[in-house]
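2.7 Reproducibility. Because tokenized structures are sensitive to small changes in the input, we list the exact sequence used for Phage shock protein C (PspC) family protein, including any N-terminal residues retained from the expression construct. No trimming or masking was applied before prediction.
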Amino acid sequence: MKKTITINLANRVFQIEEDAYMMLEQYLNGLRAYFKRTDPDGEITDDIENRISELFAEKKRLGHEVITVDITSEVIHRMGDMSDFIDTDEETSSTAGTTYTETTSEPEREKVQRKFYRDISNKWVAGVLSGLAAYVNIDVWVLRLVFIFLLFTPITLFLIVFYIACAIFIDPAITVNQRLEMKGEAVSPDAIWKKISEESKDFGDKISDGFSKVRTKYNLGYEKSETTAEKKPKRSWTSWLWGILGIIIALALCFGFLYLISPDLVEGFRAGYYSIDDPEHILESIAYMFAGGLGLLSIVIIPLMILCGILFFLLGLAILIVPIGVILKTPFHIIIKILLIIGWFMLFFYVLS
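Resulting structure tokens (single pass, no recycling of outputs):
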């Protein structure tokens, strides 16, 4: 049993565990102390508090009535740990002057080498194309149109395999630091604050639009349906595989039970009992022909052969995809990575042929 308390964070009320509250309070106090010199009015920390409140509200809407330590730790990591602020400040303080000048124009963000992440905030499937668009600095809709067009060309298989490999091995841009790196912007306290402010505004717009659509479509039943759906555990690919295997075994057992209660079915084709042309007994004739002709062993073997075929296909797909994932994890330039992936793809199918 854990003690919970009620807090008001950015005009939102939450039930939070006492340990989680201590963690959150320590984090916010650290931010206030850090930004005290550059932000005496607390504007930055107020924006950060507001963003944390929005993330907590999102968790609450998805069925988490109490804010736990795990949720608080996840939100803090997503916002940026204190070490991120301290490290980036130490890097910039050696090169920057010790004075801060107030300007009316928006400061230009320092550009750095972009990193390839999956942009899950703008995804259709896994965020691969949106992340790649951010990496090469083009509009995502252009890349999506090109991808859809190329799906009708001979390189369809390569595109699908490449997309699956990226979806598995490329990390999603979850934290503020990762989203800045994805955009090619220097990770600094000011950049983190600006990114948080932008996302806070975007989040408010999305929530407003989302609720208006939900009210129209589901007649104000959004929160209940969303909570129910969220509470259902997400099934992984292994659970789907075991489900398919269970169906195959269940079918085999059903036919096996049919054999046990009527062993005459394995004596061969029993179409002689009824004429296949007799419409009154055609179903009985087909049943005898199927069960009696194949027998229990065939009924079990055929599903197992199908299962083995699926497993061998997945094994071959893994042999093809894993080296691509290793290449994607290398520090090489994206052009070199693509050339290496194309080379491996051609070598793989050359060996198969």
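The chain has 13 helices and three strands.
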